[in-house]
Amino acid sequence: MAAPPYSLTLHTWCFPVAGCVGYRGYFDEADARAEAARLARSDGLETAVYGVPAYSTLGWMNWAGGDPLLNTFIGYPEGDFVRLMFHELAHQVVYAEGDTEFNESFATAVERLGSALWLAEQATPQVREAFARSQQRRAVFRALVRATRLALEAVYADAPADATPELRQAKEAVYARFRARYAELRAQWAADMPPAALAAYDEWIAGANNASFGAQAAYDVLVPAFEALFDQ
Question: How many domains does the chain have?
Answer without folding.
Answer: 1
